[in-house]
Amino acid sequence: MNEEIGNRKKEHIELCLTDKVAFKLKCNGFENYDFIHYAPTEIIMDEIDLSLKFLSKKIAYPFLISCMTGGTDEASNINLKLASAAESLKIPLGLGSLRYMLDTDKFDSALSEIRETAPSVPILGNIGAAQILEDKNIRRFNELIKIADLDSFVVHLNPLQELLQPEGDTDFKGLRKALRLLVKELHVPLIVKEVGSGISKKAAEELLYIGVKGIDVAGAGGTSWAGVEILRARNESDPSANAFWDWGLPTSYCIRKITPLKKDYKFSLIASGGITTGFEIAKALALGADLTAAARPIIKQLYNGGVPAVFTWVHDHFSTLKKIMYLTGSQNLKDFDSTKLTLRKNLW
Ligand SMILES: Cc1cc2nc3c(=O)[nH]c(=O)nc-3n(C[C@H](O)[C@H](O)[C@H](O)COP(=O)(O)O)c2cc1C
């Protein structure tokens, strides 16, 4: 079983290092927005502070390294390197699915090594929806939380990916009941994410009502997990699979629709799915996201230039954000809201 998961994860990484798995026609929607230039700016660049609290810890930037991979020696190595990048940047790290650790304690020491490498930042565990349907796993989730002193546990919802995976699991009956139980039993706050198809307002509202404390929209416009599975199954000539390559709600749409729920619920809203530039980070934050996140852009940096390349990527993008804040007259993240944005079509 673990060998099968390991092979699948290896194929996922190999495909995600190429751009073949990007959405083909759909974008994340941020291209529809532009910033409103504010000429009489009096902002002091050096006084722009991007730090904030996330999961009760102070972090330097509103950015999370998205949950990626696990289950192979290479994946452990990747997670250790990402932990080192997260610690030096003072940003949170999402781990890939811990499914391979459910039935064995073989990897427990590798998990605690990740915490030793990143002692001061929030680290988030991760598991698929299919694995929470079995009540017996909750005990093990809490053990894993203890081993790595995790700050949150993330459940990923990936119905489209499972639908297109030859070995996929499409029976999620009892999912909301299982999430409710997790909220009650887990020793840390629960976050729910997608993997590239987005979270609608209705879905977010249901999740928040259950007691979920964070939503990572992982919207359309970045990595297409339908694309990953189609390429993995060498199914490119199957029109019934291909039709779903671009399925999903664009990231900007999800953020815009879910932000108003902050009036009724206290939660962290995370924008991911095709976040590749400082401008996209800025637009996501201005639209209402508390944090931004990226997966494939980060792993590509890691493979091409190691931890220093990840450091530079994040650092440069947040330097761009500061410039945008200066030009829009925003001294801090609180001031940097949707009044700083306009729809591009309104400019002409
Ligand atoms: C190599 C790789 C492995 C991933 N593994 C996981 C995983 O184990 N659990 C999960 O929730 N998401 C996983 N994801 C999905 C990402 O967390 C993210 O939601 C998705 O790729 C969209 O973000 P992006 O456009 O920045 O890549 C993975 C992504 C990549 C690139």
Index terms:
alpha/beta, TIM Barrel, 12 strands, 13 helices, 348 residues, 8-stranded parallel beta barrel, two-stranded antiparallel sheet
Terminal CA distance reads 57 Å
CATH fourth-tier homologous superfamily: Aldolase class I
Mean pLDDT: 95
CATH topology: TIM Barrel
pLDDT < 50 runs, ≥5 residues: none
Q: CATH architecture, please? A: Alpha-Beta Barrel
Tally of extended strands?
12
Taking the sheet with the most strands, its summary is:
8 strands, parallel, barrel
Helical proportion? Answer: 40-55%
Q: What's the number of domains?
A: 1
Give helix and strand order, one letter per element, not per position.
HEEEEHEHEHHEHHEHEHHHEHEHE
The secondary-structure class comes to alpha/beta
Number of helices: 13
Which CATH class is shown?
Answer: Alpha Beta
Strand order of the largest sheet: 4-5-6-7-8-9-10-11
Bound molecules: flavin mononucleotide
What does this structure look like?
- The protein is an alpha/beta fold and 348 residues long.
- The protein has a single domain, classed as Alpha-Beta Barrel (TIM Barrel), CATH 3.20.20.
- Helices cover 42% and strands 14% of the residues.
- It has 13 helices and twelve strands.
- Helix 2 (73-89) links the parallel strand 4 and strand 5 (93-95).
- Helix 2 (73-89) packs parallel to helix 13 (296-327).
- The model has no long low-confidence stretch (mean pLDDT 95).
- Flavin mononucleotide (FMN) binds at residues 12-13, 16, 66-70, 96-97, 126, 156, 193, 195-196, 218, 222-223, 272-275, 294-297, 299.
